[in-house]
Every structure is written in C-alpha cells, then in structure tokens.
Amino acid sequence: MSALARIAAMLWLALSAVAAGGAAPRVLVANRYGASGDGKTLNTAAIQKAIDAAAAKGGRVRLDPGVYLTGALFLKSGVTLDLDEGVTLIGSESLNDYPMLPTRIAGVEMTWPAALVNVRDQHDVTITGKGTIDGDGPIWWKPYWDLRASYTPKGLRWASDYDCRRPRLILIQNSSAVWLGGGVVLKRSGFWTVHILYSHNVHVNGVTIRNNEGGRGPSTDGIDIDSSAHVLVEHADIDVNDDALCLKAGRDADGLRVNRPTEHVVLRDSIIRSGAAAVTIGSETSGGFRDIEVYNITALAGVPSGVLFKSAHTRGGFTEDIRIHDLTLEGVAIAIHITMNWNPNYSYAVVPAGLFDVPPYYKVLATPVPEAQGLPHFRDVHIWNIKATGARQAFNVSAYPNAPLENFRLDHLNIEATTAGTIANAKDWVLSDNNIRTADGSKPTFTDNPISDPKDVPYGEPK
User: Fold this and answer.
1) Separation of alpha carbons 431 and 8, rounded Å
2) What backbone torsions phi and psi does residue 346 show, to the nearest 5 degrees?
3) pTM of the full predicted structure?
4) Cβ(70)–Cβ(114) under 8 Å?
5) Could you tell me the CA-to-CA distances from 402 to 100, 187, 281, 399, 426 in Å, in that order?
6) For position 7, what pLDDT does the model report?
7) What's the confidence (pLDDT) of residue 457?
8) Would you say 371 and 400 are in contact if contact means Cβ atoms under 8 Å apart?
9) What are the start-end ranges of the H helices in 152-211?
10) CB neighbours (10 Å) of residue 191?
11) pLDDT in the model for residue 454
C-alpha cells in the first residue's frame, strides 16, 4: 500500500467517525413531514423540510419503504440521508423541478439544472443505505439523442451536451467531508451520475451504478472527480454508457481560466461492467492532474479501453505522478489507449457561419486557445501489473511531436491481444519485464520520438 493510500485510509476513518457524530443523532422521518411513498405524489417540499429540520441541530433523515417522486433536494451540513433498503427516490420528469444554478458542465462554468441530490457549499454530509436513487433516465435520454441527430449535420455536435439540459443524479460542489456509499444503488441518471466538483475530502465507498436500464444512457458517466482534491473511491460496481471512473479538470479557455487541478486521488477495488474505460483521465484536462493512484480495478468484455487518457490541442493541462497498477482487463478492446486529439467533432467548438443568436457559452466554448497553452503535456506516468486477455490491441498511443508523452514507465504488463498496435510521440519511455503476446506476431510500432533508452530490452520483454 502506498503512502498516499495509507494517509487516505486514516483520513477516511476519521471522516467516518465525524460523520457518525459520536452520540447517536436524532432521526427525522420525512413521512412525518408529509412525504408519501406512493410513487405519484411530488415530495420535494416534504423531504426538504425534513432535511432542513435535521440541519438545525445535525441529524439523520430517513423514509419509510416506498417510492418517492421528487425534484432537486439540497442536503445541509451535518445531515445524513439514510436510504434504507426498500426506499427509492425517483426523479421528477419536469425540468421545472430542478432549479437553474451556477455549476460546471463538461468542463465549462455555466448555469445548469440542479442535480436530483445536491451537496453544495456544505460540509460533514453523508448519503448512505441500501436504497435506490433513480433519475428516470429514459425521459432525458431520448431528447438528447434527438437533438444530437439534428445538430451533427449542422456542425454542432460539440453543442449537444450543453444545449440538452439533463439533471445529474448526485452533485457534490464546493463541499468537504462528504461520505457517499454503504450499498446505495444509483441508476438511470439523466446525465453524469456522481459529480464531485471543486470539493475536497470526499469518500465514495460501496456504490452500485446502473445506467443502461431502459435504454442507452448518453453521457451517463459513473463517478467524475472534477478539479477536486483528497478523494477516495472504492468498492464501486459500475455499468454505464460513458466514462466510468473519470478524472476531469476543465475545458479549453474556460478551464485554463479556472486553472484548478484534480489531485491526491485514490481509485481502487472496483469493477467496471460497461463504460468507456477501466479508468479515464480527460478529456477535460485544462487544470491538470497530480498524485493520482489507481489500483485493483477490473473491467469486463465490452469496455473499449483499459487505461484511457484523452485530451485535445485546445485543452492544455498536465499530468504529474500518475500511478496505475494491478488492473485486470477481460475482453477489453485496447489495453493502453492515449489520444491527445480525442473526438474532434466534440472537442473543437466552431460556431457555424450565419449562426448569430447563440447562448453565451457558445462563445466561451469557441474562444481560441493559443497553441502554447492548448497543447496538453502528459508526463511522469507509471503503469504496471496489468493483466489483459482477449484484447484487440495492446497499445493505441499518440500525442504531438511538439508535445510528446514524456517519462512513462510501463512494466510487468501481461497482455494477450490480436495485434500490438502503435506508440507515437513517446519521449523517455522505459518498458521493462513485459509479456505482450499477439495473434499476428506483431510488436508495438514506435513512431515520432521512439523509445529513447537504447539499453532497454526491445519492447520491454522479460529479461
């Protein structure tokens, strides 16, 4: 266990003790404030009343078993939301029940509908229990797919995620000492499931995320850690349609203006059943990433990438001290996938000629970024103990000749793949003690600044 992991474990133990509060907190049952679990009554005001009452002296809010239709709820400092097994919060289908508030969406600060459950500008908040939080995703997913189908031919693919407003499931923003887990089931999120934004000392422990029930949920990321610090995520079971465990830090000109890194993060002991990758850094990279450790993650067949780093030449940002190890990839298509020119139709915002009456965030997204600020600089990455079977490619890696991927160490990789793939724009890489077995007999092809240490065993095969 690394020093960071030991420190994190001690921190979360202390945090859990604070959340428990020593003496038993008073319990407020939201049904006594008018909440009804009939699945039809809108319970926003009643549940919020119970939360506000609990916040007055610090307490625990519970609900009798049932299905509770609700709009946006706002947890307060010192409050525990305890969702027992048999309790479901299901999101309202009306956007009017999610007030517009300042936040950051996909790397850009803007107003956006509140999440279903919000922790904003608070501290010492707990969300726990074996109940369910259900975003009723299909009601939000179809309008997105319809909008995207009409936008893409117009050159507005990049605007789809911003124009189609969909509530996140849980938002933790500008907050600290937040604990989420205990077996809670999070499902059918309209947009991102758990968004940890501008926050610190957050522990996610034991969540199950299911966003592919009832349709294909677009942009239904699992857990996004966004310009936040001292975050531990463990024992997550994730089935989503986009990034599963994802680190973000802002997009393009707006992300460079904010300039807040994601740092001191541990992701461990989790399973990805469906999603973009076992672990993703990006594509919102502007604020940078440092001191990140990822280990004991399993990704199953159908997950496109194992380790996925993605950015764009307008995004900027950096990595420092990234440690990824002990991953098991079963049928994952690409074991190590790095692209600094990810999804150009989405990554590069250009307002089409003749389109004048546009929202302010269009202009923010389309603000030019000079090359010196826009090129991402990923360096100081150590990846080891990766076991991959049934892969299509071992490597699909590229950056830019004038912004290469620097000082990467890859060792003890045990990869079985159809083909080895390519590594481009790599400077000062060291590969050692690797076992790459390919059906076509190929070895990785290095182009544009190949491996710089000629003393290293070619391709890092075991000595």
Assistant:
1) 30
2) -95, -35
3) 0.94
4) no
5) 42, 43, 21, 9, 11
6) 42
7) 42
8) no
9) 160-163
10) 29
11) 37
- Phi then psi for residue 331, to 5 deg, are 75, 15
Dist CA 81 CA 62 (whole Å) = 6
Q: Which domain holds residue 449?
A: 3-460
* Strand extents, DSSP E, 142-228: 170-173, 176-181, 185-187, 194-197, 200-210, 223-226
How would you classify the pairing of strands 100-105 and 108-113? antiparallel
Alpha-carbon distance values, 61 to 27, 41, 47, 314 (Å): 6, 19, 9, 45
CATH of residue 94: 2.160.20.10
Which residue do the tokens 């409050």 mark? 79
Taking Cα atoms as reference points, which of 338, 362, 339, 336 lies closest to residue 351?
362
Give the chain's domain count: 1
Mean pLDDT by 10 residues, the chain (463 residues): 46 45 77 98 98 95 98 98 98 98 98 98 98 98 97 96 98 98 98 98 98 91 98 98 97 98 98 98 98 98 96 98 98 98 96 92 97 97 98 98 97 98 96 97 85 50 64
Task: List the one residue out of 226, 230, 288 whose CA is nearest residue 261.
Answer: 288
What letter represents residue 303's amino acid?
V
| Token pair for 113 | 């509908």
